[in-house]
Specification:
Helix content is 67%, strand content 4%. It has 916 residues and is mainly alpha-helical.
């Protein structure tokens, strides 16, 4: 769009200019802002962007634009945006600097997590904004390479006080809104111009006389689209414009605009059209490269001049098309042979040392018949893309390599590898298509086993029930000969699938799978994962009591210096296993190490899982505010990364707090969803949560029913804890038969576990069913044992039930002491349901309960509490920012609010204020 066209468009877009002006004012005043401009092609997004840039002379402006043919080049868009600031790369913390350097191909190293790259970009922009506000403009985001789009969306969600503004322009309709990384960001939806404004724009753009009927028809067909208003008349003769003899077009507006561009292209000479085609085929806009390619094609300067005279393209320092639709029209309308010739020329003129991946892509686009040399070059590009963290790009390179591979066996192997990368990139449908293609080739035994395992993993990722179980068992069987180690891992995944399926997998549950895994491969303690497989196999094949010792060995193996990748990869099994064994130290250590490892590695795809698992540890420690902070961080990260939310720990918090009347509804809804999705274990864990909730609210029959349901199946990390709830509910609901039966089951498990947590819960449960000295002795034992653990919530509840028993024994003074301790602890935790139980008992014991004063945690947000704690522990703003994936300036902004709310003046006062 020319400058005069943009000026005309903006004259009728004043309402849309105002939000952009406010955005600039905010960023100048020290805030960060994000805005997504959405609308169909030609609606005026680019004109508004140019208006914004033209009014931001006091800002550092950096730009990027998506190009359809460049979508498979990893980090291409991000590299465009960061290029002006790369001279400040050395100022970033080493992990961030290394991640960004590897992503951009400036150095070699391990595969960087794309969100650590995102943190590096955030730090880079924040560093640049220290001297002058930064305006980041990204046009045609629908054509950004996926990893760039995801990373920029992540950064946009983390800016707050950095003097950085992001403005994205995205064409609608979006193909898949749920997978669009920009979904949920502040947006401005551009609509068509009102008829009055559309008429004014049209008349201003057409010289000479125009028939009023023609104006009406163009305005009606353009539907307020500015580019359509400016382009549709280009295809009409002066007689048609003046006389009104013109047939309306019923095609969509965007199609009409592209057709208008196509008509203008077709009017050019063959040489000029090939110039446009070659420019369209090379998305980088490199003028020197384009000139060399044009010369190789035998096209002269006259052809370039003719193409430029149309106004469809500009040849300056960078090649620029009038509109992206010109590029697509020039490329799609060209003869296939001419397209291949253009790509061939561009490939031959691209330096293989400086840009081997772009050269490989051009060579592939110039090739029709299978060609092993080209396929091998694409495979090398895939390896480089994967090393930089561009998994989607690696999948695209390998997919194209698969189609160009002449040897059937090698073609199948490449298809399996492409499917693996596609799955990792979040494209399971594409992965399944590639697996189907691979199956048609002559794969060897290992490749067929690999294919079967990948298909099973895709099914498990989509639906964590039993659907994947037979597929995983088949894959494990296939793996036994070619790769025993991978076979054991696959059997472990199969056990995990059976654990998740739980009661919905049949009455025998996990046992048949565990027996099959143990019979298929001999026990091996070479790796921690092998010990974990042996432990879980024993746990479910031989029962809890026999399996306790093998499970202890497995947890020791993972706590004894296991590789960080294994800590993260298998936490979904080791975390629940530690809770199942009542091993609070292992539970804390494994989840804390997983969080620490994920933060250090920037593994934001995994970090939300680690955060929620570690939050559950904090819940049991009575640290509800810290747990809530971690849950909120996990929810923010899943929103930023586009992953599915992890809701269990949030429901765990609701159950223990006991104050939200909607908690039981939310948990019940999760149970219904679990049944629908085949997640039987969630039925067990959810029923346990309901039993906690109901016991806190004094609804003992409901608690008994829920605990009973949880105990119907041997769900990992659920049934043992539910047994303790069942004993308490049974005693209070006067169903001692069920309570006694639960106690007997609990005794076997607690003795097999042998931890203070397990034996403390056993003593507590025995006390509830005892009388006289036996009861008192058991209560004291329970308190002593639980005091040596991290499990403060059950220690507080033990004070509660002990006090309740003492009051019923008419020992009111002793009862008040226990109940006061229980109330103070439970109130401090935020366990309002149980605290209310303690308050009522205190009143019945003759004590008036004092009101607690407001605490720091009551006036600070969850993130403010987290930042304040880290600052109180002595971390610098940079260290806090790196841990929480925000910038140091945002940390400083939050701390100023904390100081104001708590009336503090220094960091030294923070720890004391938060501990009160």
């Amino acid at each position: 769009m020319s400058d005069s066209d943009r000026a005309g468009t903006l004259r009728v877009r004043r309402n849309e200019c105002a939000p952009l002006e406010r955005l600039l004012a905010d960023v100048r005043s020290g805030s960060s802002r994000v805005l997504v401009l959405r609308g169909e092609a030609g609606i005026g997004k680019t004109a508004l962007i140019e208006y914004l840039v033209g009014n931001a002379a006091d800002c550092q402006i950096t730009r990027a634009a998506g190009v359809e043919s460049q979508m498979e080049l990893a980090f291409a868009g991000l590299h465009q945006l960061c290029a002006p600031f790369m001279d400040q790369l050395d100022r970033l913390p080493p992990p961030q600097r290394e991640a960004l350097s590897v992503a951009f191909g400036l150095s070699s190293g391990g595969v960087p997590d794309r969100f650590l790259v995102g943190l590096a970009v955030l730090s880079l922009l924040a560093e640049a904004a220290e001297t002058q506000p930064v305006l980041c403009v990204v046009d045609d985001t629908q054509w950004l390479d996926r990893v760039s789009a995801q990373t920029l969306a992540f950064v946009a969600r983390r800016v707050l006080a950095e003097r950085v503004a992001f403005v994205f322009a995205e064409r609608t309709p979006v193909a898949d809104p749920e997978r669009d990384p920009l979904t949920g960001l502040p947006e401005l939806q551009l609509r068509g111009l009102p008829d009055k404004d559309a008429r004014a724009l049209l008349v201003s753009a057409i010289p000479g006389r125009v028939d009023s009927d023609v104006i009406d028809r163009i305005v009606a067909e353009a539907r307020g689209n500015p580019l359509a208003l400016l382009e549709l008349p280009q295809g009409l003769t002066s007689a048609q414009l003046a006389g009104g003899y013109w047939r309306p077009d019923v095609r969509p507006v965007v199609t009409q605009i592209e057709h208008s561009f196509l008509q203008r292209i077709e009017a050019l000479s063959t040489a000029a059209r090939r110039v446009l085609l070659t420019a369209a085929a090379e998305p980088s806009g490199d003028m020197a490269l384009l000139r060399r390619a044009i010369e190789r094609l035998g096209l002269g300067a006259d052809a370039m001049t003719a193409a430029e005279k149309t106004g469809l393209i500009e040849f300056e320092a960078q090649v620029r098309f009038r509109h992206p639709l010109v590029r697509s029209a020039a490329y799609r309308a060209a003869d296939p042979g001419d397209r291949r010739a253009a790509h061939r020329a561009l490939a031959e003129e691209t330096d293989p040392a400086l840009d081997p991946d772009r050269r490989a892509w051009h060579r592939a686009s110039a090739t029709v018949e299978p060609d092993e040399e080209v396929a091998a070059e694409l495979e090398r590009s895939a390896v480089r893309a994967r090393a930089r963290g561009g998994v989607a790009a690696a999948a695209a390179f390998l997919r194209r390599a698969t189609g160009l591979t002449p040897d059937p066996g090698r073609r199948g192997a490449r298809a399996v590898s492409a499917a693996q990368f596609a799955f990792e990139a979040g494209s399971p449908e594409s992965a399944l298509e590639l697996l189907a293609a691979a199956e048609m080739g002559p794969l060897d035994a290992f490749q067929r086993a690999r294919l079967a395992r990948l298909r099973a993993q895709i099914v498990f990722a989509r639906r964590r029930g039993g659907d994947a179980l037979p597929l995983l068992l088949d894959a494990a069987h296939r793996m036994q000969v070619p790769s025993p180690e991978q076979a054991r891992e696959t059997y472990l995944e199969a056990i995990g699938s059976a654990v998740f399926a739980g009661r919905l997998n049949g009455p025998d549950g996990v046992r048949p799978v565990a027996e099959l895994a143990r019979a298929a491969l001999p026990a091996s303690g070479a790796r921690a994962v092998d010990v974990l497989l042996d432990g879980l196999a024993a746990r479910f094949a031989d029962g809890y009591v026999v399996g306790a010792e093998p499970m202890r060995r497995a947890l020791r193996a993972f706590r004894g210096g296991t590789a960080d990748d294994d800590i993260m990869r298998w936490l979904w099994l080791t975390g629940p296993a530690a809770a199942d064994l009542w091993d609070d130290e292992a539970w804390h250590e494994l989840t804390a190490q997983a969080v620490r490892t994920a933060r250090e590695a920037g593994a934001l795809n995994f970090l939300p899982l680690a955060l929620t698992y570690h939050a559950a540890v904090h819940v049991h420690a009575g640290e509800f505010d810290m747990a809530s902070t971690l849950v909120q961080e996990a929810e923010a990260l899943t929103a930023a990364t586009g992953n599915s939310p992890l809701g269990y720990t949030a429901l765990l918090l609701d159950a223990w707090r006991g104050a939200d009347p909607r908690a039981s509804v939310a948990i019940a809804a999760r149970l219904d969803q679990a049944a629908e999705w085949g997640e039987g274990r969630t039925i067990g864990t959810g029923s346990y949560l309901l039993s906690v909730l109901h016991n806190g609210q004094g609804q003992y029959q409901a608690a008994l029913d829920s605990a009973g349901k949880a105990c119907e199946h041997d769900d990992l990390a659920a049934v043992g804890h539910a047994l303790a709830e069942l004993v308490e509910a049974g005693v209070r609901a006067e169903d001692r038969v069920r309570a006694q039966a639960a106690l007997r089951r609990l005794e076997r498990r607690a003795h097999a576990s042998g931890t203070d947590w397990a034996l403390g819960m056993l003593a507590r449960s025995r006390a509830l069913l005892s009388a006289g000295e036996d009861a008192e002795r058991s209560y004291r034992e329970a308190l002593e044992r639980l005091s040596r653990t991290r499990i403060a919530v059950y220690r507080a509840r033990t004070h509660l039930v002990y006090g309740e028993w003492l009051r019923r024994e008419n020992r009111r003074s002793d009862a008040r002491e226990q109940l006061r301790t229980a109330y103070d602890m439970l109130h401090r935790f935020g366990a309002d349901g149980f605290a209310e139980r303690a308050r009522r008992e205190l009143l019945a014991a003759g004590e008036t309960v004092r009101r607690h004063s407001a605490e720091a945690n009551d006036v600070l947000s969850a993130q403010e509490v987290q930042i304040a704690r880290l600052a109180g522990a002595g971390l610098t703003n940079s260290e806090i920012g790196a841990e929480l994936f925000i910038s140091p300036r945002t940390v400083e902004w939050h701390l100023r609010k904390v100081f104001a709310k708590l009336n503090l003046t220094s960091r030294k006062e923070l720890r004391q204020a938060l501990d009160k």
